[in-house]
Design a protein that fits this description.
With 491 residues, this protein is α/β, with parallel strands linked by helices. It has 19 helices and 15 strands. It folds into two domains: 166 residues, Cobalamin-binding domain (Rossmann fold); 282 residues, Alpha-Beta Horseshoe (pyruvate-formate lyase- activating enzyme), CATH 3.80.30. Helices cover 41% and strands 15% of the residues.
């Protein structure tokens, strides 16, 4: 059966919908649509013909999209969603339902999964929402539609049946991730690495996942709460190593692999086993992964030996009270010790810092910035808090009246950049955005940091130098601008 799987266009830009904080990124980063790719692979494995369109990556406009869909004439169309783009997503999904005869349109993704009923009421032409993990749901739904069978027996759906919403029941989550199709195979058939960019990695890079879910309870993190119900599952080390070799064979121009797990380092022993498997396979591609401050020195050294170049850490705050308030499960001291271990292991670190969590004050923000200087990561990002439906932090701020608006298009600016809609007792949303802008400048424009980057570029001009210059070429126009988009020449 013909099925279209679509990452729809938004704001005519490189909108990174798969990111944990969807937006058009200042660094030019555009995530691979790996969740949609897994859904595509599941549909193809079930014998269905799939047209997989990543519109932001390919520059496909709405007009182009509907022309393509009309020509393809799918029986089912899958539309990805995110909070900032949801009104556009619903409009496109509704139009897709009318563009092709008997087109069953199903929404997937974080926003539709968090608020499925709300989405279907706003877009009554849409047929269903596949809630949470949707690989098997889509395959079974396509089978049912092809066989002219009612989809009521397909678990994991909220169906729109002539205006009545019918819940088909919660789907059991996939236990064996090795049963999923290799992303490498799906990418080879449908996507081009040159269309994607990850600022912390060498270009062109490619993204994969080695696990799903996370057992930690960070109140702000959307993917584990909304899509995976915080249930942690893993691929086997050999399965991961095999895919690394496939990436190298299929995409010889790729310079780095980004492991985009919610947290790659849940289990230090598993990290070592995956690293061992990569070493034994002869992997030669550098790679990057998201980790926690609990990552051991032994695991770091194994990762380095297996080709790991950089690790990404969510430090979040320099205040222990703030960390405890969002249930981060780490300490400021752990963060400092983690950075020291990474340096000893020879791994670069990209540090992530947040502004606007519960209890935030001007003083805790300054603690966070001072910690960022002490940690001295290779690169850093400073983000105002962005809360998404389905997360505990969103519910907390909504109930306490801290959300300025619940008009979801306000989650990004008019340019599609990250925005903040949280007003705290002593910090407005504008103040949080402004602090992040100034913290970014204070961090990156330090003479010491500029000298460090110059030396790094001179030592490795074709790898680290190329990565830095490419990211800076996009990022520089935002570095001297305030959150309102105007230049800021304050020191």
């Amino acid at each position: 059966m013909k099925t279209a799987v679509v990452n729809p266009p938004f704001m005519n830009g490189r909108f990174s919908r798969t990111s944990r904080s969807p937006a058009i990124n200042k660094s030019g980063t555009l995530y691979w649509p790996f969740w949609l790719a897994h859904g595509t692979g599941a549909l193809e494995a079930a014998g269905h013909e799939v047209l997989f369109l990543d519109c932001p990556a390919r520059g496909i406009s709405e007009t182009d999209l509907f022309e393509i869909l009309t020509d393809f004439s799918p029986r089912m169309t899958v539309i990805d969603t995110s909070t900032p783009s949801i009104y556009s997503d619903l409009r496109i999904a509704s139009a897709a339902a009318g563009a092709c005869q008997d087109n069953f349109v199903v929404l997937v993704g974080t926003h539709a999964s968090a608020l499925p009923g709300h989405c279907l009421r706003l877009a009554p032409a849409v047929s269903a929402v596949a809630v949470g993990e949707y690989d098997a749901t889509l395959a079974e739904l396509a089978d049912a539609l092809e066989g002219d069978t009612d989809p009521y027996g397909v678990a994991g759906l909220l169906l729109n049946v002539r205006g009545d919403l019918v819940d088909t029941g919660e789907r059991e989550m996939i236990a064996n991730l090795d049963s999923l199709p290799f992303l490498a195979d799906v990418y080879l058939r449908h996507l081009d690495p040159r269309d994607y960019f990850f600022a912390a990695a060498r270009y062109p890079s490619i993204m994969t996942i080695t696990s799903r879910g996370c057992p930690y309870k960070c109140s702000f993190c959307v993917w584990p709460q909304v899509m995976h119900r915080e249930k942690f599952r893993v691929r086997s080390p050999g399965h991961v190593a095999k895919e690394f070799l496939m990436f190298r064979e299929y995409f010889p121009g790729v310079q780095e692999i980004v492991i985009e797990d919610d947290t790659f380092s849940i289990d230090n022993r598993r990290v070592e086993l995956v690293s061992d498997a990569l070493i034994q396979s002869g992997n030669r591609l550098p790679w990057t992964a998201n980790v926690r401050a609990s990552l051991s020195l032994e695991a770091m050294r194994k990762m380095k030996a297996a080709g790991c170049r950089l690790i990404i850490a969510g430090y979040e705050s320099g205040s222990q009270e703030i960390l405890d308030g969002v249930c981060k499960g780490t300490t400021v001291d752990q963060n400092m010790e983690f950075a020291e271990r990474a340096d000893r292991a020879g791994l670069l670190v990209h540090g992530c810092f947040m502004a606007g969590n519960p209890g935030e004050t001007p003083e805790t923000l300054e603690e966070t910035f001072r910690m960022s200087l002490r940690l001295s990561p290779d690169t850093a990002q400073f983000f105002p808090v962005m809360v998404y439906p389905g997360t505990r932090l969103y519910e907390k701020y909504r109930k306490e009246g801290n959300l300025r608006t619940e008009s979801f298009d306000r989650w990004v600016t008019a340019e599609g950049l990250h925005n903040c809609v949280v007003d705290l007792p002593c910090l407005t949303a504008e103040t949080l955005v402004s602090w992040c802008d100034r913290a970014r400048r204070r961090f990156y424009l330090r003479p010491r940091y500029l000298l460090y980057k110059l030396c790094q570029t001179l030592r490795n001009p074709f790898t680290e130098g190329r990565r830095t210059l490419r990211a800076f070429s996009t990022f520089r126009r935002h570095l001297f601008r305030r959150g309102d988009g105007e230049e800021d020449r304050r020191p």
